[in-house]
């Protein structure tokens, strides 16, 4: 049941992003014509990215918690439990990187005078990008680490 729920959340997240981004402007041409005086509506991109980041954090924690019922099972040796917890610790690090990314994105969103704050905002944006790269690389490493015992046997 837990795996099915995690699968549903993991699949629904990119679909939600795709449908939201495909329908963010009415009419669609307003996206590239809004500065030339075109009439239309556009969703608040800052709030969208913040919401997507929060959903991403929640999905990271859900994926992180899926194997815990198996870890606490009594038939697994302590050595295997410790190895799996080590792999999961890398996943916790990815969750922390996602939270730091949200913090820097919120700083970027709350900038009142973009021209005056462009220098610090670029630094903040750069940190947010690095946090995202760090999150992606750690999640990839954690998912690949599960196959390491096979290589060393």
Automatic annotation (TrEMBL):
UniProt key word Transmembrane: yes
Pfam families noted in UniProt: Fung_rhodopsin
Listed InterPro entries: Rhodopsin_dom_fungi, SAT4-like
Residue span(s) of domain Rhodopsin: 4-118
Domain of life according to the entry: Eukaryota
Membrane topology: Multi-pass membrane protein
Membrane listed as a keyword: yes
Keywords noted in UniProt: Membrane, Transmembrane, Transmembrane helix
Predominant place of localization: membrane
A GO cellular component annotation in the UniProt record: membrane
Location of this chain's protein in the cell: Membrane
The family this protein is said to belong to: Belongs to the SAT4 family.
Name of the featured protein: Rhodopsin domain-containing protein
